[in-house]
């Protein structure tokens, strides 16, 4: 959070992060339930696609938070991650249901996203509430990405790649291939940023 926030801004951010944590927690619990009950995996797309799409779309306001100084998040990194996820939920998951619903990459992606964001938003809730962040929560916030980023990014890439094989538009396919090419440098940038944040935060 930003160093000088009004009570109204803190209250808004507290509510926003609490709601986001609960939304992602619900998605996480649904994914975990489906994993333990393999019969429900084929229906996971129908059960979660709208909620995952709108929950992720809600995060677009975080770009405004960063751009206006409401939070200290870097604008470019915030935009990059949220834009990539927004493209994923709207242009891939929603637009190509046959590709998404039939792939194990979809629940894998939701698992990585939901556990990371449940922890991240919970971390900010504790901070905004003025409480001491438990050591375990801080460690999870700055460590889970080491395993979850590769899972989420690989799943996103694969679903987009599969979409290129079923689209009838050469223009759409070309756009997708362009984005696929950006995954490598973009992933390295985000991973490096989080590693720096991890060293800086956990060293305190």
Automatic annotation (TrEMBL):
Pfam families: PTPLA. One of its GO terms (biological process) is fatty acid elongation. One of its GO terms (molecular function) is very-long-chain (3R)-3-hydroxyacyl-CoA dehydratase activity. It is found in: Endoplasmic reticulum membrane; Membrane. The chain crosses the membrane at residues 12-36, 139-159, 171-194. InterPro entries: Tyr_Pase-like_PTPLA. Its EC number is 4.2.1.134. The keyword Lipoprotein does not apply. Pathway: Lipid metabolism; fatty acid biosynthesis. It comes from the Eukaryota. It is a multi-pass membrane protein. Belongs to the very long-chain fatty acids dehydratase HACD family. Catalyzes the third of the four reactions of the long-chain fatty acids elongation cycle. This endoplasmic reticulum-bound enzymatic process, allows the addition of two carbons to the chain of long- and very long-chain fatty acids/VLCFAs per cycle. This enzyme catalyzes the dehydration of the 3-hydroxyacyl-CoA intermediate into trans-2,3-enoyl-CoA, within each cycle of fatty acid elongation. Thereby, it participates to the production of VLCFAs of different chain lengths that are involved in multiple biological processes as precursors of membrane lipids and lipid mediators. This is Very-long-chain (3R)-3-hydroxyacyl-CoA dehydratase. It comes from Aspergillus mulundensis.
